From TrEMBL, chain A:
Keywords: Glycoprotein, Membrane, Metal-binding, Sodium, Symport, Transmembrane, Transmembrane helix, Transport. InterPro entries: Na/ntran_symport, Neutral_aa_SLC6, SNS_sf. This is Transporter. It comes from Ficedula albicollis. Belongs to the sodium:neurotransmitter symporter (SNF) (TC 2.A.22) family. It comes from the Eukaryota. The chain crosses the membrane at residues 41-58, 70-92, 113-141, 193-211, 223-243, 275-292, 304-325, 415-436, 457-475, 487-511, 532-552, 581-603. GO terms for biological process: sodium ion transmembrane transport.
From TrEMBL, chain B:
The chain crosses the membrane at residues 146-170. It comes from the Eukaryota. It holds the Pfam family Collectrin. It comes from Ficedula albicollis. This is Collectrin, amino acid transport regulator. GO terms for cellular component: extracellular exosome; plasma membrane. It is found in: Cell membrane. GO terms for biological process: positive regulation of amino acid transport. It is a single-pass type I membrane protein. Residues 24-224 form the Collectrin-like domain.
């Protein structure tokens, strides 16, 4: 066993000792906020982990990487990577009782950059994540009418047909790209602010402010609804979906295993990345949440429970989504077939009902024999169920295009639309709680803001600043900016931070000390599984994923998809290169959080070195005031 | 007498056959899909339905040109297939053996499309006049878009929530301040200064140990 331990003088002074923790626990003299009960804590963590990615990223990965076979790498990496990292964050937060900046500065002053990097990443992700919630709210507001506005194309000027852009693509595409985003044809063409989206953005930030106004005092109440409602809605959709025609096609397609995919390294890479991002690790939010727990809370059990729930939710959501996608694909297939039947019927004046899906081929041959000349002029579409099933997109395309189309085909569509968008809203909002926590608590820990300022005001100012910056995402080119932020601010920096976290706890804080802490907190030492994963397996997996991710991202051509009605292959999206100034933005997005770690390390090292020179002049008696004997820790 | 009658009838029949045939001038093809529209409630297309069709076309012509000269006998149907598609043409009784111009027929049918559809319980898609395009009906739009109403409701709830939480926060803060000032007046705040970790008062305590070695032996001290 590698027992490397880097020298860490002064660690004892920076962290509360076990005895002090016992005192804090007994006398409840801790000034930190506390959870009202265990359920709030669990629901908040589950809500933070379970987000939009479980609904719209995992099903797509599952289906495109060999269906049921994808479960194998997913579950293996869940156990080897997700659970250990989660347990680590819970334990360190509960032990050191601070937010991310506080925890890492306590471990070693030069590691403050890790906490600051977490804060930056939480901030950047929070900016664009709430815009997605704004889009969800827009669709939610529009769901209270029958027929739904995305079920049919609007008419053109002289009412002889449909608007051209809509006729060429589809009503759902048109509603998403034109009536919601009003998207431009490139990221350089910023356009103006779309007022309807701005109103929805105001709503989204307003709701977030209401729920986080007093920290966990208010979010603890909100999570009773936001964390449980998605499961209710998923169950309703499952029951509804299973009664629709063709749903079983979708589920079978999703889970049909293709074992050859396991040999493809990209499958394992995607599984690892999905596990990692799905757990919302390295944002700092989970460390904060567990720091509000009592000292003897069983964090090992919590980590396992939250991980299992997260994995189960991914699989459950995938089943529901693909039952509905199966229904949609079958509907499309039937429509395509019906159009072919109509073509044949109209050309040969056959009575209705004579040609069905079963005897279509026979009738085709019959007609060909009777009148080959007319038959040759007929154009038949190719109808393939698998092509329609493969159409299941990921991300915003799944939620706002594929799923909304499926909903228009169900009876009582406004009801299903409202339910679906409430579910997405709750999933997104509960993840935003963790993001806000990851931004606000480090600000507190950094002592930038005087403690006299009330929490409500700080939260308000942070929400206001984020709201104003998020104006970029409601321009005509907003969606392109969002994809940019999504791709670069929340990917590579998180991997770096997570690796640094593991390394710091195991080798700088000391795995022996950590083991003793956990023994103190939960009563028994962590077993051999945790030892192996913390010291060796998980950091190795993180390194491999980071390496491959980095290589792939650097080597791939940076193209983005553009919605261009004058593109020759319209309605397919056009792939366009980014303009050069965007590369600067990408470097800032990915670079600033990542480089915060070494920058702060060097800054602190230099400052310590200078301070040590000054300190050598004689002993300085430290005079500290205390009130009623309770010491306040400085720095 | 009889022979003359037979002759006129045959002439009329031939004339009709000439006027109504596929792709004839001013003739329109109609395609009807009853089973698609009505499913189990579908009726069969028979001579009575054809009579109704002729009547509806005559009705449309009468309404359009507002001269009551078009009779049911002016509408000719031919080439009825099992698909239920056929060609029809409208003759002009005032001018011998001619058909009403296609544009007039088209305009008349367009004007009364809704009435014709409803007579057969069909729609624009299931009762198709192949050369006549239908005007699409615009969707019903309410004066205030629905989404603005829902947005207004949600925004009011949010503002109410923020105001309530801020006010209750201020009230709690004031109560806590009042309580803590009351508590301060009741007990004395003990401020303890620490010197190198040892409370200063412990150092000053007069009942401390006196070190005999340094006991005040003033004579030992050098006098100035």
């Amino acid at each position: 066993m590698v027992k490397l331990q880097l020298p860490n003088p002064g660690l004892e002074d920076r962290i509360p000792s076990h005895a002090e923790l016992e005192v804090l626990e007994k006398e409840e003299a801790d000034s930190r906020p506390k959870w009202d009960n265990k359920a709030q804590y669990m629901l908040t963590c589950v809500g933070f982990c379970v987000g939009l990615g479980n609904v719209w990223r995992f099903p797509y990965l599952c289906q495109s990487h060999g269906g049921g076979a994808f479960m194998i790498p997913f579950l293996i990496l869940l156990v080897l990577e997700g659970i250990p990292l989660l347990h680590l964050e819970f334990a360190i937060g509960q032990r050191l009782r601070k937010g991310s900046v506080g925890v890492w500065s306590s471990v070693h002053p030069t590691l403050k950059g890790v906490g600051i990097a977490s804060m930056f990443v939480s901030f950047l992700v929070g900016l664009y994540y709430n815009t997605i919630i704004a889009w969800v709210m827009w669709y939610f507001f529009n769901s209270f009418q029958e027929p739904l506005p995305w079920s049919s194309c609007p008419l053109n000027g002289n009412r002889t047909g449909y608007v051209e852009e809509c006729a060429k693509s589809s009503p759902v595409d048109y509603f998403w790209y034109r009536e919601t985003l009003n998207i431009s044809t490139s990221i350089e063409d910023s356009g103006s602010i779309q007022w309807w989206l701005l109103l929805c953005l105001t709503c989204a930030w307003g709701v977030l402010y209401v729920c986080t106004i007093r920290g966990i005092e208010t979010t603890g109440k909100a999570v009773y609804v936001t964390s449980t409602l998605p499961y209710v809605v998923l169950t309703i959709f499952l029951i509804r979906g299973l009664t629709l025609k063709g749903s079983t096609n979708g589920i079978v397609y999703l889970f049909t295993p293709n074992v050859t995919e396991l040999a493809n390294p990209v499958t394992w890479l995607d599984a690892g990345a999905q596990v990692f991002y799905s757990f919302s690790l390295a944002f700092g939010g989970l460390i904060s949440f567990s720091s509000y727990n009592s000292v003897h809370n069983n964090c090992e059990q919590d980590a396992v429970i939250v991980s299992v729930i997260n994995g189960f939710t991914s699989i459950y959501a995938a089943t529901v989504i693909y039952s509905i996608i199966g229904f949609r694909a079958t509907e499309r297939y039937d429509d395509c077939f019906d159009r072919n039947i109509l073509t044949l019927m109209n050309a040969f004046d056959l009575p209705e009902g004579n040609v069905t899906q079963d005897n279509f081929e026979q009738m085709q041959q019959l007609c060909n024999m009777t009148d080959p000349a007319t038959f040759a002029t007929l154009k038949f579409e190719t109808c393939d169920l698998e092509t329609f099933l493969n159409d299941g997109a990921e991300g915003t395309g799944l939620a706002f295009i594929v799923f909304t189309e499926a909903i228009t085909k169900m009876p009582v569509s406004p009801l299903w639309s409202v339910l679906f968008f409430i579910m997405l809203f709750c999933l997104g909002l509960s993840s935003m709680f963790g993001n806000m926590e990851g931004v606000l608590v480090p600000l507190q820990d950094l002592k930038i803001i005087p403690s006299r300022v009330p929490k409500e005001l700080i939260t308000g100012i942070v929400c206001l600043v984020c709201y104003l910056i998020a104006f970029i995402f409601v321009l005509n080119s907003g969606n392109y900016w969002l994809t940019l932020f999504d791709g670069f601010s929340g990917s590579i920096p998180l991997l770096i931070i997570a690796f640094c976290e593991m390394f710091s706890v195991v080798y700088i804080y000391g795995i022996d000390r950590f083991n003793k802490d956990i023994e103190f907190m939960i009563g028994h030492k962590p077993n051999i599984f945790w030892q192996v994963t913390w010291r060796l397996v998980s950091p190795l997996i993180m390194l491999v994923i980071f390496f491959f991710y980095f290589v792939v991202k650097v080597n791939e051509e940076l193209l983005y998809s553009v919605w261009n009605p004058s593109y020759e292959d319209f309605p397919k999206t056009e792939k366009v290169e980014y303009p050069p100034w965007v590369y600067v933005i990408i470097v800032i997005l990915a670079g600033v959080p990542s480089l915060a770690i070494p920058t702060f390390a060097i800054y602190k090292a230099i400052r310590n070195h200078c301070q040590k020179k000054n300190d050598r002049a004689g002993l300085i008696a430290t005079s500290e005031t205390s009130i009623n004997g309770n010491l306040k820790y400085s720095s | 007498m009889l022979r003359a009658l037979l002759l006129t009838l045959s002439v009329v029949a031939i004339a009709h056959a000439e006027l109504c045939k596929p792709d004839a001038q001013n003739a329109f093809k109609v395609r009807i899909s009853i089973k698609t529209a009505l499913g189990d409630n579908a009726y069969a297309w028979d001579a009575n339905e054809e009579y109704l069709f002729k009547a509806m076309v005559a009705f449309a012509m009468r309404r359009y040109s507002s001269k009551s000269t078009t009779q049911i006998s002016n509408v000719l149907l031919c080439n009825v297939t099992d698909r239920v598609s056929f060609w029809f043409v409208v003759t002009d009784s005032s001018k011998n053996v001619t058909t009403v111009p296609g544009s007039e027929v088209e305009a008349a049918i367009r004007m009364n499309r809704n009435r014709i559809n409803n007579a057969f319980l069909l729609s624009d898609k299931t009762l198709q006049f192949l050369k006549i395009t239908s005007t699409l009906s615009p969707p019903v739009e309410p004066s205030t878009p629905v989404w603005l109403i829902v947005f207004g409701v949600v925004l009011c709830l949010i503002v109410a929530g923020i105001v309530f939480l801020i006010i209750s926060g201020i009230r709690k803060h004031k109560k806590k301040n009042k309580e803590s000032t009351e508590r301060e007046n009741l007990e004395e705040k003990v401020e303890v200064t620490l010197e190198n970790g040892i409370p200063c008062e412990a150092l000053d305590i007069k009942a401390g140990h006196v070190n005999g070695v340094f006991a005040a032996d003033d004579e030992r001290f050098t006098s100035l």
